[in-house]
Amino acid sequence: MQTELSRKLGIEHAVFGFTPFPAVAAAISRAGGFGVLGAVRYTAPDDLARDLDWLDAHTGGRPYGLDVVMPARTVEGPKDQTLTEADVEAMIPEEHRRFVRDTLAAHRVPELAEGEASGWRITGWLEQVARTQLDVAFDHPIRLLANALGSPPADVVARAHDQDILVAALAGSARHARKHRQAGIDIVVAQGYEAGGHTGEIATMVLTPEIVEAVDPLPVLAAGGIGSGPQVAAALTLGAQGVWLGSVWLTTTEAELHSPALTRKLLAAGSGDTVRSRALTGKPARQLRTAWTDAWDDPAGPGTLPMPLQGLLVAEAVSRIQKYEVEPLLGTPVGQIVGRMTTERSVQAVVDDLTRGFEQAVDRINRIAGRSGQS
Amino acid sequence: MQTELSRKLGIEHAVFGFTPFPAVAAAISRAGGFGVLGAVRYTAPDDLARDLDWLDAHTGGRPYGLDVVMPARTVEGPKDQTLTEADVEAMIPEEHRRFVRDTLAAHRVPELAEGEASGWRITGWLEQVARTQLDVAFDHPIRLLANALGSPPADVVARAHDQDILVAALAGSARHARKHRQAGIDIVVAQGYEAGGHTGEIATMVLTPEIVEAVDPLPVLAAGGIGSGPQVAAALTLGAQGVWLGSVWLTTTEAELHSPALTRKLLAAGSGDTVRSRALTGKPARQLRTAWTDAWDDPAGPGTLPMPLQGLLVAEAVSRIQKYEVEPLLGTPVGQIVGRMTTERSVQAVVDDLTRGFEQAVDRINRIAGRSGQS
Predict the structure, then answer these.
(1) Nearest residue of B to residue A5, measured between CA atoms
(2) What angle do CA A343, A349, A353 make, to 5 degrees?
(3) In terms of Cα–Cα distance, which of B209, B210, B190 is closest to B200?
(4) Which of B19, B87, B27 is CA-nearest to residue B334?
(5) Hey, what domains does chain B have and what are their CATH numbers?
(6) Are strands A197-198 and A220-223 parallel, antiparallel or unpaired?
(7) Taking CB atoms and an 8 Å cutoff, what residues of chain A touch B173?
(8) CB-based contact B237 A237, cutoff 8 Å
(9) Which of these, A171, A230, A315, B344, could form a disulfide with A176 (CB 3.0-4.6 Å)?
(10) Do A203 and B201 touch (CB under 8 A)?
(11) Chain A residue with minimum CA distance to B272
(12) What is the per-residue pLDDT across A306-325, written as a single tens digit (0 to 9) for each?
């Protein structure tokens, strides 16, 4: 499974795997794919440096990448003023804080211990946090830098190119993809409606070829709804030069969810058990549908706040829900492909399944095309 | 492009085309695909008989099918009582009738002339109307009978099978597809989120293989987001035995929209210009987003009524909007593929483009799979 892009990166399969877990990213690269570590959960630059050092030692010399989140514009502060986390916290209405407390109380969610920090923070959404992450990243031999929201700033693109690092950005529409191209990025990730995390409304089947044509000749990775070999083959048939998978790694044996209850929920969920909700970050993101997303999406409630207010508002609550595994509220970003995630497997087993299924799908389409002698 | 199903039906391409226009259905069959005429707009059985007679004379002996709408359950009437259209009309609240009048008045939509009947009725949704359509259909050499909502009743399936007619049903989830199989149908149409008309939430990329596995070995047609050769190839790669296309025919030269303004809107619309709304029938159906759908989807309005009340409520209004081409309100069911419909072409040109694009896509995936010597 080789495309111009996979050859350029020197990888065996055009399979890009996004994950918040270093062990998963390393295993993806070792299996011949391209592991991309999500940086948003790192608030301390030292933690990111430590994990990138670990990656350098465990990818077997294979290339890997880093995904940061730098929304082009988040909170409108007074001109030229850098907003701190405290500034943003102060913008959160008391009504919303009360709704968080009441919803947690209704489900008897215990408090964190005194002095125990929220393990799940969303301060990575702030540009200044992303920039400290970038300083760390540029000290490591990353081959790809992806930005999950909006185009990265021009100086970041220039710095990456100076170090021969490819820059990727996610897009949910052809218009966004064209903006990325104008910003000088190298790869567009076409993120379909069915994908986990932040998505637009246009499904992968329509979005992929639309973005391929919009940014030609830039390479496009297809994301959303991909978790089997035939789906990989379909995405590449649509003109993508690779696939970008996030959800399928969540139930691998290398994943560090640290929550047996959440793993059980993921393994049990069907393709109809996700929802595109603003509950997590303030922008629509696909995730497991839970009593928590229902509460935020309920017209009778206060509704969600814009990014990054919503993320800050719910950070501690999400940590408590996760720590105590309060099942009705327990969720995670994940795509509609969750219906296919029914057993825990190693990353290598997932990649083997993808590549074997890809070959079988190519056999199938050749038979349909009357080229059966060729497969 | 041959699958087990296309061979069984004796067609050249595994491309099934759904359309409300006999001229389009005939042209699809003549071009080597399989034309399926939508019956919902026929209220008089004689009109349907006339158009099926015409089809018999104009398909050049190629097979064609008919699509009816028989929702399993629509309005709850007293037990064993057959509901008439008048019964259903009486269930519509005055508040909703006023909202229709006010919305039309706000956009200065003229009245129909005295005695002029609404050309666009939705009474085909009622089972008794669908049954008179079936009596007509069974007098014609149709090769396929499709049901757009729910499984067809057992006696209809039996009667079709007696006449060697294949029965198809649309499904938006694996659960619906399994119900269809239990009802004895022969083909499942997997209708993805991005499709025009009634759809569920699961996108084609995820839904197609899920339904293929759920009803194996029944053949599955993929619907939703398909309007180019690479999309046809992708759908077949996912395990479908054919594709079911509806939207792409709306802007063919054979289509009888009788509305230059609507054709212009379709040609100008992008993939993000549709919405999944209950405005048309009371069930979620993808269509052009207009001031009309916005009014019904506005939380400040009265909201929509359940099927078939909503369809009856808006039937005359939709006729007026269409007749007078009131542009802000003018819409039609159509899928996200509308973004690719940018020029008026003949049905033959569309089919040629699909088959040529399919071959190129197969070449592409063979190159990626390292089988380039074989294409």
Answers:
(1) B368
(2) 90
(3) B190
(4) B19
(5) 4-73+84-374 (3.20.20.70)
(6) unpaired
(7) 271-272
(8) yes
(9) A171
(10) no
(11) A202
(12) 988 898 899 899 999 999 99
Beta bridge partners of B188: B169, B220
For residue B89, the tally of other CB atoms under 10 A from its CB is 12
CA angle A309, A315, A321 (to 5 degrees): 140
Residue A285's Cβ-side half-sphere holds a number of Cα atoms within 13 Å equal to 24
Q: Which two tokens stand for residue A132?
A: 């400290």
Q: Give the residue on A whose Cα is nearest the Cα of B1.
A: A369
Q: Please name every residue paired with A17 in a beta bridge, in sequence order, or none if there are none.
A: A35, A245
B300 touches chain A (CB under 8 A): no
8 Å CB contact between A144 and A127: no
Local structure of A17: helix, strand or coil: strand
Residues in chain B: 375
pLDDT along chain B (375 residues), means of 10: 97 98 98 95 90 97 91 52 74 96 97 72 60 91 91 92 97 97 97 97 98 98 98 98 98 96 98 97 96 96 92 91 96 98 98 98 97 62
B366 touches chain A (CB under 8 A): yes
Which residues of B are less than 8 Å from A174 in CB distance?
A: 270-271
Tokens of B231: 């999309």
Q: What is the ipTM of this complex?
A: 0.94
Residue spans of beta strands (DSSP E) within chain A = 15-19, 34-38, 64-68, 144-147, 166-171, 187-191, 197-198, 220-223, 242-245, 274-277, 285-288
B231 touches chain A (CB under 8 A): yes
Interface of A with B in 115-154 (CB under 8 A): none
| Contacts with A209 from chain B: Cβ below 8 Å | 228, 230-231
Per-residue model confidence as pLDDT tens digits over A76-89: 555 555 667 778 88
> Distance from A348 to chain B by nearest Cα, in Å?
20
Whether A364 sits inside 8 A of B299 (CB atoms) is: no
Contact B149, B122 (CB under 8 A): no
B201 contacts in chain A (CB < 8 Å): 272
Tell me which amino acid residue A216 is: D
Label residues A145-172 b or e (16+ Cβ within 10 Å = b).
bbbbbbbbbeebbebbeeeebbbbbbbb
CB within 8 Å of chain A, chain B residues 11-50: 14
